[in-house]
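Running this now, will post back.
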Amino acid sequence: MIYKTPQIIYIMKKYIFIFFGILFLNVALLPLVAQDIVLPAPDKTGGKPLMQALNERQTTRTYTTDSLTRQQLSDLLWAGFGINRPEQGKRTAPSAMNWQEIDIYVTLPQGSYVYIAASHSLKFINNKDLRKETGGQSFVADAALNIVYVADMSKRGKKEGDEIKDSDLFMTYADAAFIAQNIYLYCASANLGCVVRGSVPAGNLETELGLKASQKIIIAQTVGVPGKQE
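Update: finished.
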């Protein structure tokens, strides 16, 4: 018969406690590290009247570090390119030939996601803060989020390895601009700030977002709580 001394029992209890403590932390932190975000239903009844929103639409280049609420994020993405006619799968912004080739990538402090309109959710990509990677201006790293508009040219018949010419992107630039303007109007209606940016560093950003050769970054848009204007 093996007798356990009080010291051995103490050590065993200590290691059992540590084991379960680590297990608990891993389970508790997992949703924060890698998890899709299911957005609440968009509020389609709020906001300012259209003519007032148009009157207050403006570009903002100074932001606080405040985050958007989950509801604001939901409303913003639905306004930008959400589904407004479920029976047809059509969206709040037009697209040539109904290609719907623009994907909305969202960079937040806790990670990067792509908007899935069909489920009104954000699909997790990674847990890296890539906001500063989306532009050269200093404010992009401080604002609540940066949107990267990516054209999936496979939806327009392009195959992996096919050359994407400027002429192929003529209507795609317009399609991205329609979405960006929707977000401008939402921001004016919700007292938020935003700015569209044409210069978006590619290379590392494409790699971090896991883009394919048939996907091309078109423009970016910074959104956040306006700071004191200089």
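The helical segments are 6-33, 50-56, 70-81, 170-189, 204-209. More later if anyone needs it.
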